[in-house]
Amino acid sequence: MLSVALAIAFAVPEVSAQSADTSSASTTFQIKGFAPQVCQLPGQAAVAGAVTNATYSSNIVTLTDFIDSTTAFVKGSTLTLKFDRAMCNYEAYLSLSSQNGGMTSSDAKQAAAGDFLSRVDYTVTANWGSISNLVLDTSKAARSVNLQSAGANSGPLTLTFATKDGTVPVVNGNYTDTVTVQIGAKL
């Protein structure tokens, strides 16, 4: 009889008792900063788009043929200016205001008879980021208009100056007005 003896051995790893270090410490840090209100209207405006009967230089819009030389009626004009980037980092206003409420003349004489204009109305339409079609119309009673953005606002600022063809003659003289464009605080 043949017998086979099998030897079975089990290897049991030796467990050594190691002490687990459960001691720890932590702290938190707060980091803070403050961003004040900032508005920028950098650089000079540049003519953008088609121009009719107007020129621009050094912040002066000039109507080249202000009136028709035979009728003395105002000739229509259009000029669009663009600032590439205007920015306010808060809910700022875009405001337009007219100093005279239209183009007026300090040297024009009063009309002796008949209908003549001694003030010439115009419009300025502004678009900036989320604000579109803010219109200052000097034929209206208000000398200023404004709109507030819904939040921080950044983008090109365009201004379109326009006069309409007239139907009443204009009294001879030099006609001017000053338009203020402001971003930030309300005018």
Number of helices: 0
Number of strands: 14
For the termini, the CA-CA separation is 117 Å
**Main beta sheet: strand number and arrangement?**
6 strands, antiparallel
What pattern of helices and strands is seen along the backbone? Answer: EEEEEEEEEEEEEE
Radius of gyration: 37 Å
Helix content: under 10%
- Unreliable segments (pLDDT under 50, ≥5 consecutive)? 1-10
Q: Which descriptor suits the 3D outline?
A: elongated
Output the structural class. Answer: mainly beta
What is shown here, in short?
By secondary structure, this protein is mostly beta strands.
Protein architecture, described:
The N and C termini lie far apart (117 Å). Strands 1, 2, 5, 9, 10 and 12 form a six-stranded antiparallel sheet that branches. Strands 11-6-14 form a three-stranded antiparallel sheet, with no helix packed on it. Strands 8-7-13 form a three-stranded antiparallel sheet, with no helix packed on it. It is elongated and about 110 Å long. Helices cover 0% and strands 39% of the residues. It has 187 residues and is mainly β.
List the helices and strands and how they pair.
Layout (H helix, E strand, L loop, with lengths): L38 E2 L5 E2 L6 E4 L2 E4 L13 E12 L4 E6 L4 E3 L13 E2 L2 E6 L2 E7 L6 E5 L4 E11 L11 E2 L2 E6 L3
Antiparallel strand pairs: 1-5, 2-5, 3-4, 5-12, 6-11, 6-14, 7-8, 7-13, 9-10, 9-12
